Amino acid sequence: MTKHLNKDTTICMSLAARPSNFGTRFHNYLYDALDLDYLYKAFTTQDLKGAIGGVRALGIRGCAISMPFKEECIPMLDELDASAKAINSVNTIVNSNGYLKAYNTDYIAIATLLKQYKVPNDFTFALRGSGGMAKAVACALKDAGFKQGFIVAKNEKTGTDLAKLYGFEWRKDMTDLKPDLLINATPIGMAGGEDADKLSFSEQQINSAQVIFEVVALPAETPLLKYAKSQNKAVITGSEVFAIQAVEQFVLYTGVRPNDELFQQAAKHARQGA
């Protein structure tokens, strides 16, 4: 970084079970390019309540929230924006003089990519997962006009709740399902996890699908994406999700929206070091 840190430098951060360099490189690249006196740093924690208290007490301006904290942090906050309240899931906290307001920019990213890739809303889909990210995906699918889909989750309570909320069906597994669109919103395939080397869907299911949507951003090519590309499937990647939701966070933290060229440069820089 070319600027000098000082007592007035504004700090932003992220909290995740397995932090990556993506957000750190993305935000700091834009801070430098736009000559903003900000610094971004990634953290993990075993004490979420203490970490959120630190955000408030130390004047941390912005805090990105990743798995598995997106729902657990809600009771510790002062207000939910409509984007977070609608799906009861948080991925962004903005601190204004000790008042913590939460947002969800994941939804914006998912909705943007479904539209950008022109995924037909008459496709059947299977969404694996029922946590905070899955909620954002399910809401975006519903709002985009998808009507026939399945929430695939081992947890019957959260799976059925999510399916009922948006008018979809819950399934415990993928037995007998051959949807057009497969979406992974679980940690399966995520670097550093116990399932890092696993496919979130079977080879047969991937072969029969038309579009594969991977929400996991780290690594840039998960086992799901690698196999889908080897079969010449259309893919939407987690790094694309991460970049779009990150720029929306950047705007919330700084009040500045970078132009598209600068956004693309920051996303490319972030992917190179993720």
Question: Care to describe what's here?
Answer:
The protein is of the alpha/beta class and 274 residues long. It is built from 10 helices and 12 strands. The strands form 2 sheets. A 6-stranded mixed β-sheet has the order 2-1-3-5-6-4, with helices on both faces. Strands 9-8-7-10-11-12 form a 6-stranded parallel β-sheet, sandwiched between helices. Strand 1 (10-15), helix 1 (22-33) and strand 2 (38-43) form a beta-alpha-beta unit. Helix 1 crosses helix 9. The longest helix has 17 residues, at 238-254. The radius of gyration is 18 Å and the shape is globular.
**Terminal-residue CA separation:** 17 Å
Beta-strand percent range: 15-25%
**In terms of structural class, how would the helical and strand content be classed?**
alpha/beta
Shape: globular
Radius of gyration: 18 Å
Key words describing this protein structure:
274 residues; 18% strand; six-stranded parallel beta sheet; alpha/beta; six-stranded mixed beta sheet; 38% helix; 10 helices
Briefly summarize what is shown.
This protein has about 270 residues and is α/β, with parallel strands linked by helices. Helix content is about 40%, strand content about 20%. It has helices spanning about 20-35, 50-60, 80-85, 105-115, 130-145, 155-165, 205-210, 225-230, 240-255, 260-270; strands spanning about 10-15, 40-45, 60-65, 80, 90-95, 100-105, 125-130, 150, 170, 180-185, 210-215, 235.
Write the layout of secondary structure elements.
Elements: E1 10-15, H1 22-33, E2 38-43, H2 48-58, E3 62-65, E4 79-80, H3 82-85, E5 92-96, E6 99-103, H4 106-116, E7 125-128, H5 132-143, E8 149-152, H6 156-166, E9 169-171, E10 181-184, H7 203-208, E11 211-214, H8 223-230, E12 234-236, H9 238-254, H10 260-272
Parallel strand pairs: 1-2, 1-3, 4-6, 7-8, 7-10, 8-9, 10-11, 11-12
Antiparallel strand pairs: 3-5, 5-6
Helix pairs in contact: 1-9, 1-10, 4-5, 4-9, 9-10
